[in-house]
Structures are given as C-alpha cells and as structure tokens.
Amino acid sequence: MPPRTCALCNDARAILKRPKTGQQICKECFFYVFETEVHNTITEARLFKPGDRVAIGASGGKDSTVLAHVMKTLNERYKYGLELFLLSIDEGITGYRDDSLETVKRNQQQYDMPLKILSYDELYGWTMDAIVAQIGKKNNCTFCGVFRRQALDRGAAILNVDHIVTGHNADDIAETVLMNIMRGDIARLGRCTSICTQGEDTIKRSKPFKYAYEKEIVMYAYFKKLDYFSTECIYSPDAYRGHARAFLKDLEAARPSAIIDIIHSGEAFEIKEDVKATQKIQQTCRRCGYMSSNELCKACTLLEGLERGMATAAVTDRARKRLDADGPAPENLRTIPMFQLPSAPRQKPTTTAVEGTT
Amino acid sequence: MSAINLKIEFGGGLELLFSNQRSHRIAIPANVPVPTPEGSDVQTKPADLTYLIFWLRDNLLKERAELFVENGTVRPGVLVLVNDTDWELEGEGEYQLKDGDEIVFISTLHGG
Ligand SMILES: [Zn+2]
Ligand SMILES: [Zn+2]
C-alpha cells in the first residue's frame, strides 16, 4: 500500500486514522487537532478563569497523565493563567497503587507541578488492603468510590484549589451512559454527561476530555512517549462495567461515531432545574462537616460500619438499621477530621472565563 | 524456508499476558500455508498481520488469550501500529509483513 499523505496539511505521511472523523492525519497535525479540540471544549464550557487554582486528579494512568501534559501545554499556549497542581489519592493497595504513585512522582518532575498525595490511611485510618481483608472483595468498590470522592475534595481543600479536573474520556462517559440506561437511572443519565458538576458549596469538577476518544488519548501518549502506568486494580470485580465496556468497544469497531452518539443521547436526557429541586437538599455531615444529603455522610457511615465490624452498614438500608439497633456510635469511634472548603479570600480577577483566542 | 525477523512491542498492560515483557524479537516463516480443502495441493501466501496475531497467541502468549484475540482478530480496544503507523492505514490484518518490521500492540482497556 502506498504511503498516504495527511488530510490536513497535504504534506507529511499519515500515521493515524481518526476514529471521530475517519481522517488520515500526520503526527504533528494529530497533536495539534487533539490539543485544539480539548482547548475548544474548555473554552466553550468556560471551565476556567485566569488565576484559578486547578488540581489534576492524577492516578498515574494514561488518561490523567495525558491530561496533565495537555493542561500544561494549553495553559502555556493560550495563557489561561492557571496554577496547576497534581492531586493523587493513595488507596493503600499494595502492588497497584504504590507502583502507579511512582509514575505520578515522575510526572511531578516532568511537568514541574506541585504534587499532593492523600492516603485513605491518613484520612480514614484504613487502607483498601485492610478493608478488603475485613469485608472481602464483594462490596469493596463501593467503599473505594465513596472514600475516593471525599478524599479528592479534601485534597483539593488542602491545596486550596476550588476546581478538580479529571481524565474521564468520551469512552468512559459513553460507558456510564450505557450503565445508567441498563439500570434505568434516568436522573443520573443526563447528569453523567455534564462536563462540569458543581453544587452550591462543593468543589467544582470537570472533564476536559469529555469528547476525547480513548484511542486518541492512548495514541497521543504513545507518540509523545509519555510515561504512564497500566495495570488493572487487583480488587476490581466490577463485571457489569466490564461488560458495558466490551459492548461499547464492539459498537465502536462497527461504527466509530457510536461513542459520541451515545454521549449525545445522554445529553438529551439532561433534566430541567425544577426536577432537580425535588432531589434531596444538601446539608453537611454532623460528624465530619462534609457535604451530605443525610445526617451522616456516606464515608462516615461506611467508616462507622468498618470500625464496629458491621461493614455492610452503609451498603444497604437494612444493614444501617441493624447498626442503629446495635446502639449509638461509641464515644471513642475513629472519625474523619472536620472538612473545610477552601475559603482563603483570593483576589478574584475581573476578567470572565478564559476565551478562545481565535 | 525463509524467515522474516520482527520486533514486537506490547504496551498498555498487554505485556502482562506475555511474560510481563514489553519487547520481543521473533522470526516467523515468510510464507505460510493457506487453508485448503483436504486432498488439494498445499498453497502458501506471504505472512500477514492476521497470521502474526495467531502466531503470537500460540507461541508467545502465556495467559488469558481472550484478552488478546477475539473473532479472528485482536480484541476491540487493542491498538496496533505497523512501524509507528496505525494499522487501520495499512490494511489491518491483510498487511504483508516485511523483514525488520516493528509491530506494536497497545491495550486501551486498562485504568485511567
Ligand atoms: Zn499533517
Ligand atoms: Zn461525614
């Protein structure tokens, strides 16, 4: 087969077929269009303001490694004026997280960004290894998910940032849309596609890779020779998600636009504000001060269950009642330190969102 | 019988299926038999990428073949590069291998 020339510059040899468009493009044009599309996603959603302090949720995996690289590149190229940080959560999984954290530490050097690592152990007094030793592998993803979400917010508060960006890509979002459809969770269906989530008093979270295909993220990492870690979590038994992923990849093989099409379907379900109003009102956790829709936040409930040896307490309502029936929480119960939102008064620049320069 | 030498790289977690070794040098036959009805003369064709995928599964892979091969090709989500070019630009499985080719397989399926 003769070498093909790039559809964009009509000059260099094509090295990649874009899944989104079918275009055949060269390496330099690929870097440029990939970065520019992320820039467009950022500016169209007005994700940042000059002077924002932004933490990149960094796992050492491909998505967050590419995100750190692209955020640094765009921040310099388009003068976003952001202060960037790396924020990693150490779940305490021997042979998995300890290795990936080494990757994050190298990223810190390579990208010259301050890094904060917050561990489950220091925050909750439990590593995932210890949790799995007590409860087995069945519900451990529930614990890990709840603990990670709160740990990221607490890490952000320590760094005094009010915005966390994560590496969720188009494939991840399409997969979540599929899972919410299969569960019949319409409320979550629209929400899971929003690029940015922010409640009244929560730390802002957004997904600059919302429209970036996993294939292109991996190709970008490969051609830029970025250093990332790739091993499955050793405790990950989420077979349902695995099936959704395999199904999505089959769809993509048959028709590459399937991923974007599914995201658009999810977006069409975004529910109106007045419907949202009927959802539970946010309050703060009586024990730790974290945002919660109940008296106790999920992490405090899970932690209490672990400490009292009734670990399934927060996983089902019935188990929670058993825990309550067993009596009030003991005085000396281990608790999570009080949460405080980043509140240091910062100079708010008068300019509005970062705009495109074109 | 002539052979072609290839450099094979695994990444993105696929190396775990291949003795946790990212880089391999192998030699495969330059011409390989084409499946023919029994009794007829054995015919051959130049070795292509599809042949290589099954050769790797049968000769180099150590565990969980289903994470590498599915429905006669690589599993969806595994990227293939031929001399640093997306195999989708090179005819995918029909690409005819040449001596000295470098073939890269990267899984996209491992955590973000
Ligand atoms: Zn080009
Ligand atoms: Zn709490």
From TrEMBL, chain A:
It is found in: Cytoplasm. Its EC number is 2.7.7.-. GO terms for molecular function: ATP binding; nucleotidyltransferase activity; tRNA binding. Residues 283-312 form the Cytoplasmic tRNA 2-thiolation protein 1 C-terminal domain. Residues 54-232 form the tRNA(Ile)-lysidine/2-thiocytidine synthase N-terminal domain. GO terms for biological process: protein urmylation; tRNA wobble position uridine thiolation. Pathway: tRNA modification; 5-methoxycarbonylmethyl-2-thiouridine-tRNA biosynthesis. The keyword Metal-binding does not apply. Pfam families: ATP_bind_3, zn-ribbon_14. One of its GO terms (cellular component) is cytosolic tRNA wobble base thiouridylase complex. InterPro entries: CTU1-like_ATP-bd (IPR056369), CTU1_C (IPR032442), Ncs6/Tuc1/Ctu1 (IPR000541), Rossmann-like_a/b/a_fold (IPR014729), TilS/TtcA_N (IPR011063), tRNA_thiolation_TtcA_Ctu1 (IPR035107), UPF0021_CS (IPR020554). Keywords: ATP-binding, Cytoplasm, Nucleotide-binding, RNA-binding, Transferase, tRNA processing, tRNA-binding. It comes from the Eukaryota. CDD domains: CTU1-like. It is an enzyme of class 2 (transferase). ATP binds at residues 57-59, 63, 89, 167, 172. Belongs to the TtcA family. CTU1/NCS6/ATPBD3 subfamily. PANTHER family: ATPASES OF THE PP SUPERFAMILY-RELATED (PTHR11807), CYTOPLASMIC TRNA 2-THIOLATION PROTEIN 1 (PTHR11807:SF12). Plays a central role in 2-thiolation of mcm(5)S(2)U at tRNA wobble positions of tRNA(Lys), tRNA(Glu) and tRNA(Gln). Directly binds tRNAs and probably acts by catalyzing adenylation of tRNAs, an intermediate required for 2-thiolation. It is unclear whether it acts as a sulfurtransferase that transfers sulfur from thiocarboxylated URM1 onto the uridine of tRNAs at wobble position. Prior mcm(5) tRNA modification by the elongator complex is required for 2-thiolation. May also be involved in protein urmylation. This is Cytoplasmic tRNA 2-thiolation protein 1. It comes from Lentinus tigrinus ALCF2SS1-6. The lineage of its organism: Eukaryota, Fungi, Dikarya, Basidiomycota, Agaricomycotina.
TrEMBL record, chain B:
C-terminal thiocarboxylation occurs in 2 steps, it is first acyl-adenylated (-COAMP) via the hesA/moeB/thiF part of UBA4, then thiocarboxylated (-COSH) via the rhodanese domain of UBA4. It comes from Lentinus tigrinus ALCF2SS1-6. It is found in: Cytoplasm. InterPro entries: Beta-grasp_dom_sf, Mopterin_synth/thiamin_S_b, Urm1. Keywords: Cytoplasm, Isopeptide bond, tRNA processing, Ubl conjugation pathway. Pathway: tRNA modification; 5-methoxycarbonylmethyl-2-thiouridine-tRNA biosynthesis. This is Ubiquitin-related modifier 1. The keyword tRNA processing applies. There is a cross-link at residue 112 (Glycyl lysine isopeptide (Gly-Lys) (interchain with K-? in acceptor proteins)). It comes from the Eukaryota. The modification 1-thioglycine is found at residue 112. GO terms for cellular component: cytosol. GO terms for biological process: protein urmylation; tRNA thio-modification; tRNA wobble uridine modification. Pfam families: Urm1. Belongs to the URM1 family. Acts as a sulfur carrier required for 2-thiolation of mcm(5)S(2)U at tRNA wobble positions of cytosolic tRNA(Lys), tRNA(Glu) and tRNA(Gln). Serves as sulfur donor in tRNA 2-thiolation reaction by being thiocarboxylated (-COSH) at its C-terminus by the MOCS3 homolog UBA4. The sulfur is then transferred to tRNA to form 2-thiolation of mcm(5)S(2)U. Prior mcm(5) tRNA modification by the elongator complex is required for 2-thiolation. Also acts as a ubiquitin-like protein (UBL) that is covalently conjugated via an isopeptide bond to lysine residues of target proteins such as AHP1.
